[in-house]
């Protein structure tokens, strides 16, 4: 794919959710040309004439693209190319933008902090890579607090956190049978992931009440005040899925 075609598509990026999601979807469909796409994004990020709001929108496009990869919306080979290209380009772009010292740098730093927090929670990149971005340690945003985050993206974000919690919980349950001391540490880790899920959805999304009920039940299991209801949330029968109504509302 030639750069001119990519540039025409990136011209459509604005602050609206629709423009960000549309461009990110197009990028995912053309993941085989991700090096050209990320090169064009890098060029725009470094352009002194680019505003902070546009730079943030470009970061959100990259974030939506990564979410599509995480949700298996891109073939495995394309997914690897996307992750490699993003991991190479974003640090370079961030360094270049900071060197420009734009007057609206605070807005850019807030946007960077949001996506870096998401990527850290979803474990998309190694912690050392996240740290090298030098993003401010702002409060982790809710999944609906960032312009450009669609409902489907919000649900994928929450699903990613829930997946991490389920993994931590299952490891804790296994350790209960073999190493009580290690189990205590793993329980703490599981509680931290559960707290992250709650922070992402509580009082934020319509239908969050049913999810809050599940969160409370899971916390009771971890603290020993209730029996294990039967393993991880993912994989239960539909009639036991307390998130059923929640996801129906999100469609």
Q: What order do the SSEs take from the amino end to the carboxyl end, as H and E?
A: HHHHHHHHHHH
Measured between the Cα atoms of the first and last residue, the distance is 33 Å
Query: Using DSSP, what is the number of strands?
Result: 0
- By DSSP (H or I, 4+ residues per run), the number of helices equals 11
User: What share of the residues does DSSP label as strand, in percent?
Assistant: under 5%
Taking pLDDT < 50 over at least 5 consecutive residues as the criterion, the unreliable ranges are 138-150, 229-251
Mean pLDDT: 75
The Cα radius of gyration reads 20 Å
Helix content: 55-70%
| Whole-number tally of structural domains | 2
Q: Major sheet, described briefly?
A: none
Per CATH, which architecture of the largest domain?
A: Alpha Horseshoe
CATH topology of the largest domain: Serine Threonine Protein Phosphatase 5, Tetratricopeptide repeat
User: What overall form do the CA principal axes indicate?
Assistant: elongated
What class would the helix/strand composition place it in? mainly alpha
CATH class of the largest domain: Mainly Alpha
Organism: Trypanosoma brucei brucei (strain 927/4 GUTat10.1)
InterPro entries: CID_dom, ENTH_VHS
Protein name: CID domain-containing protein
Domain CID: 7-133
Structure description:
The structure is a single chain. The chain is mainly alpha-helical and 251 residues long. The chain has two domains: 1-131, Serine Threonine Protein Phosphatase 5, Tetratricopeptide repeat; 149-221, no CATH class. It contains eleven helices and no strands. α1 crosses α3 and α4 runs parallel beside α6. Residues 138-150 and 229-251 have low confidence and may be disordered. It comes from Trypanosoma brucei brucei (strain 927/4 GUTat10.1). Residues 7-133 form the CID domain.
